[in-house]
Design a protein that fits this description.
Layout lengths: L1 H28 L3 H12 L6 H6 L2 H9 L2 E3 L24 H7 L8 E8 L2 E8 L5 E5 L10 H7 L4 E4 L19 E3 L2 E4 L9 E6 L4 E4 L3 H6 L2 E7 L2 E4 L2 E2 L1 E3 L9 E7 L4 E6 L12 H10 L2 E6 L8 E3 L2 E2 L16 E5 L1
Antiparallel strand pairs: 1-13, 2-3, 3-15, 4-19, 5-17, 5-19, 6-7, 8-9, 8-10, 11-12, 11-16, 14-15, 14-16, 17-18
Length: 340
């Protein structure tokens, strides 16, 4: 009798495993191309989870999926003359709820505000900054050697708001955040030259007139044209009011995101979307993200380092939910954009 019960339990366990296997196979190879695209593009844009795609698909299949999901930038650079930096006044009436969320000041602090945002499968925040002259690039204390948590850097700098900025060398997600990928410009000087392999986009940052500039020029040309602080990342999502062409889900899957954007009236947006947390927020893909930015009238916008690095700090406290395995959920990073 005991043996019969034992075999029954084993058979039931094997049946459940078969159901899971068949479900996974159906989702991966069934009629829903959306799920295949989501799995492959999400896995292939992580630093250490590419194996998930390679386990289920051949190199040819992965290449085909990536070729059908991508962001094609316009090829243009920011026209700084189209951005007006100055006093932004409140209105009595607004064109949309999005306009009201941006322009209606927070009575607790008139120089910035936090706007909670949410949509299908994602939650996050927008930090709205009215004076871009008070935004700068903050480097970790041991820049080039080890990184630091954004919360710690922002608190030490007495920043009102902060978001993460560039990517960093991170083999198997064991990097210490010390060595950035791409060029870093600080106070008009090139302070770092690193490889930007695998990251589309270009040099992005603020010039001496406090305009967010997205450019494909060389670091030397960027500095000569007045670039003050900048990192190298991408893709560019919106340039001079024109969104990039996005096919499929954009090739980046759904994940946590950080975006730096500026409206035509000079208002800067620190956008952070949480992800990789089922039941709370899965993340956002590039077309949905771009649509969201356009609703808030972003005129120039660039995707920054995302994933577990995506963080938003207000007055020394992290307010989003990063998905790393540290106590705070943060990762060590080389730099961040701060507002003081």
């Amino acid at each position: 009798m005991k043996k019969t019960k034992k075999y029954t339990k084993l058979a039931f366990f094997l049946l459940i495993m078969d159901v899971f296997a068949l479900t996974g196979f159906f989702l991966s190879y069934g009629p829903w191309g959306y799920l295949r695209n989501l799995l492959v593009t999400t896995a292939m844009t992580t630093k250490s989870h590419k194996y998930l795609a390679h386990t289920l698909y051949t190199e040819r299949q992965i290449k085909e999926i990536l070729n059908n999901n991508y962001v094609k930038e316009s090829g243009e650079d920011t026209n700084a003359n189209e951005i007006t930096i100055g006093q932004v006044e409140e209105k009595n009436t607004y064109d949309s709820i999005y306009e009201e969320q941006i322009l209606k000041r927070d009575p607790d602090h008139k120089d910035y505000k936090i706007v909670p945002i949410s949509g299908s499968g994602y939650k996050g925040f927008i930090g709205v900054i009215y004076d871009p002259s008070r935004i700068s690039l903050l480097l970790s204390p041991k820049f080039g050697q080890t990184g630091e948590f954004l919360q710690t850097m922002a608190k030490d700098a007495e920043a009102k708001l902060a978001i993460n900025a560039s990517g960093f060398i991170d083999i198997n997600e064991r990097g210490n955040g010390g060595q950035p990928t791409g060029t870093i410009i600080k106070d008009g000087q090139i302070v770092w030259r690193g490889k930007a392999t695998g990251y589309s986009g270009g040099i992005v940052g603020f010039n001496k007139d406090h305009v967010l500039v997205l450019t494909h020029t060389t670091p030397e040309e960027a500095v000569a044209s007045g670039m003050r602080d900048a990192v190298e990342f991408g893709p560019f999502l919106i340039v001079n009011g024109t969104p990039s062409i996005i096919k499929g889900n954009g090739g980046w899957g759904s994940a946590p995101r950080t975006v730096l954007a500026q409206r035509k009236d000079g208002i800067v947006l620190f956008v952070v979307i949480d992800g990789r947390q089922p039941g709370y927020s899965i993340g956002i893909n590039m077309p949905t993200l771009t649509e969201l930015l356009l609703k808030y009238k972003a005129y120039n916008a660039v995707n920054l380092d995302g994933g577990a690095s995506s963080s938003l700090v207000e007055n020394g406290k992290i307010i989003n939910k990063p998905c790393a395995i540290s106590v705070t959920g943060e990762r060590l990073i080389p730099n961040g954009w701060i507002f003081k």
